[in-house]
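Ticket #4471: complex job returned nothing on first submit. Input attached below:
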Amino acid sequence: MDRETRNHLIWLCLLWVVFSAIGEWLVQMAIDHWPLIASKEGAVTGEAIFFLLRATAPIFTLVVLILLYSAIRFRVPQDDERPAEAQFATGHLFIAGWVGLSVVLNVLFIIYPGIYGLEALWGGAQAAAAADPLDIMVTAKQWEWDFAYPGGKVTTVNELVVPVGRPIRFMLKTEDVMHSFWVPAWGIKKAVIPGETRVLVVTPTKVVSTSADPTVRVQCAQICGVGHALMRGDLRVVSAADYQSWLDGKTKAAAPAMGGMKGMNMGGGSSGSMSNGMTMPSGAATMPGVDKSGGGTNGMGGMTMPGASDGAMKPGAGMQNGTTTQPGAGAMPGMDMPGSGMGGAGGQGTTGGTSGGMTMQPGTGTMPMPGASDGTSGN
Amino acid sequence: MSEHSGMIGEAAGPGWLGHAAPMLRAALWGAIGFLAADWAVAAALGSRLGAEWPVVTGFFAGSTGWVLGGGALEACVRPWFGPAPAWDEGIGAGRFLRFHSDHKIIGIQYLVSATVTFLLAGLAAMLMRLELMTPKLDVFADAQQYNEAFGVHGSLMLFAVSVVAIVGGFGNYFVPVMVGADDMTYPRLNGLSWWFLVPGVLAILLSPLVGGFQTGWTGYAPLAAQDAVGQDLYYLGIFALGLSSLFTAINVIATTLYMRAPGLSMGRLPMFVWAMLVTSVLNLIWVPVIGTGMIFALADRILGTHFFDAQGLPLLWQDLFWLFGHPEVYIIMLPAWGLWLEIIPVFSRKRLFGYGWAVAGMLGVMFLSSYVWTHHMFTTVADSRLVPFMTTTELISIPTGFMYIAALGTLWKGRIRLRTPMLYVLMSVFNFLIGGFTGVFLSDVPADFQLHNTYFVVAHFHYTIIGGMVFAWLAGLYYWFPKYTGRLYSEGWGKLAAWLVFLGFNCSFLGMFVAGFDGMNRRVAEYMPYLGGINAWISVWSFVLGLAFGIAILNLLISAATGKRAGDNPWGGKTLEWQTSSPPPHGNFARPPVVTGDFYSYGPERGVTTP
Ligand code: HEM
Ligand SMILES: [Cu+2]
Ligand SMILES: [Cu+2]
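Support reply: We reran it on our side without changes. The output follows.
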């Protein structure tokens, strides 16, 4: 290596150290001022972002430095046409270093934070299933979020209240098009797909609310039509005691309206009773492959979607379709399974309950009822 | 082909009307075709003129009328019935306004239409940013209009600008010249290709007239099933644009494989031609996939099939869409890399570094790009698909890095002349680095669970598309300007615009990363007030960006009319296009060139190519 090259490289190294340090400092500043992270899962995804910021800063700096250093240091007047003195076409050290480094970094990033983070999320979900999670049925529809709490008495619209510190298992369904359940401060989202039930486990770690911090909100994150931007719900994370008293209050308020629907169980208070009504046993709900079990719950999609197939579905119409087109729906693939009729019956409010053989969450049957969206589940 | 003889002399030509006659005929036949079919079907079905079947049939009839009227009737259809193909290729400006078989004319047609579409779709972006200046809805009448605006903006920018500006424009113009051929292999097919572009652009642009589409450029089912007739025009428009790309791909592949000058081995192929070849292979494989998807989706809407609704598989649409959609982003970026590596040696006066690595990198990207599509669906698919696609996605950064090896290695110890094209290339190298590094975040599944569908993604893909491809396209527009116009552009205005574009772009789109981190989801006309500050910042800078693009393009237009004569080779380039006159004559070379060395030697052995 000649002297001139050595000088260039020494300069580059010095600049690289200095600017990498500045870069890391900037990254640290950003992390210190990061928006709220208020769940265990958000800590995992946030840590992935932080790690990638920290790890890529010096590499980014290096490449930009080579670029800028060359552009400045090797610059000549713009009409100087003489060829450069050095005319090498390859440089083994540079290429080997580059390729080697990029392979190593790739393997690293795939393992950490990639697979490691996924394991943390999946492991957390599995542990949550064993640890008495709070099951909340989430029904997305144009353009609102409906939440049904265990016990079947309390439903809310665009208002989610959950206790801090306890794993919450959201069962996500949609009545019409695709949506996506996202709480920015919880750091995780999951798409809600027609015809499937998705499960998202979140463990809130902070007592916060939308009014205190707007990143604490339920936000649809998948374009779903005109109301997409405003398809959001208030979220309050409260202490376990506050949650209980809120739930009790809501239950009492709902009781008079429940009338002839006493048998209705909208979610099962515990995983034991739930497994009656649900296609997925509680343990399975957290398994990596669970998404595929959506096939088993296709009946739900089949029930609410017929309107879409003939182009007649209008915004907001999916709800009514679910009940009114029930009789004719038998011809559809999704409806052949046992129990789908039950779901329909439940929808008409004649029977209900968690009797065996239901392939779908009984809660589904109640959701399409007119009036179900006024905050209580009565007619 | 004797009909070419007319175009050499530019003397006393036909008047304005004579020049434009074929295009006027095309427009007339297109309009008549559309209206007649629209009306007939509406009358037969007793439906409105704007209903689904009338519009869809009208589109087919109108496009056919347009393509035939432009000259395809004489060039392509009449020969089926016996007579030899014969059509008037016009002279002067008239050559650009008709069916033409000269690849250089077609290249200019693509460049002009891509620029016009870029400005129109950019105007939509300006309106969107104006809307987003404040948290509430104030510019558009309702959210529906905003949704239609980003659908039109995104669909046009991707399908009618990004994937065709460089391939259709420079690819058509320069691939034959750079391989020493006199034209493309299939000139008439080539002539046809541009004519399919126009109905595609019009369908998407005018879709708001029949209710527009709200799904954005990705057309996700089953939301698409709810949309108005505009959704059908999205399917049809993209199908037509796909045909256009497909025809070009066939020609580029055939021409590079079979029409190279003597001595021009594949190992000597210029980087830009490699990029065009690789891109065209991707087009040839994947455009039919998206075309099929569009037909299925159209069938869902007008024939009552159930491919993509809840009785079928909504996720199947996403798979089909991204099977094409991800290779597409490399269809966008590979040509830009080709431009980097073509321009950097010329303005560094230095041999291209790591030619073999760069070619291997392009091939590696081509191969891998077909195995990563699920990274757009991390929050929608089964968990079992996450790790494999995270792995392939991250791996693609390795061959991508080879482009940087070649670029940086060439710059190192070069004699760098920072003329406008070089400035744009270096800016593109910088911007794409940000696009690439933020792509690493999105390929990491845990991080993507938070970042997906936020403004982080919007910033990321604009960094790759504007930052990478549009900057490179501008570099190419300036670099080859002397060749395709025969004149020099204004260097001062060129550089000023370049710096303004750079400033406006980075200031506005860096802000979008912040908005994404702060919890702003994409495709919204309204947002919560706490995001107001950052959005106002983004909007103001994006207006600077819009203005800067205007200056950059205006500079080219003015220079094309008033610039000094350029001479054949103002930058001292080595590739074959610089060894012929500016612009090249019909047939490209006075005598067929013979290649005796490689194109990237600037040392003592300079001048090894003999035209
Ligand atoms: C002139 C500067 C530009 C500005 C200010 C701009 C701004 C925007 C904005 C605000 C959105 C909506 C983002 C969202 O909510 O999802 C958007 C979407 C998009 N832009 Fe641009 N854009 C510009 C140029 C471009 C260019 C040059 C391209 C490609 C060549 C492009 C491609 C896209 C695409 C593909 C989308 C996604 C549309 C969708 O969501 O379906 N944009 N742009
Ligand atoms: Cu939405
Ligand atoms: Cu992709």
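Residues 1-11, 605-611 of chain B have pLDDT under 50 and may be disordered. Closing as resolved unless it happens again.
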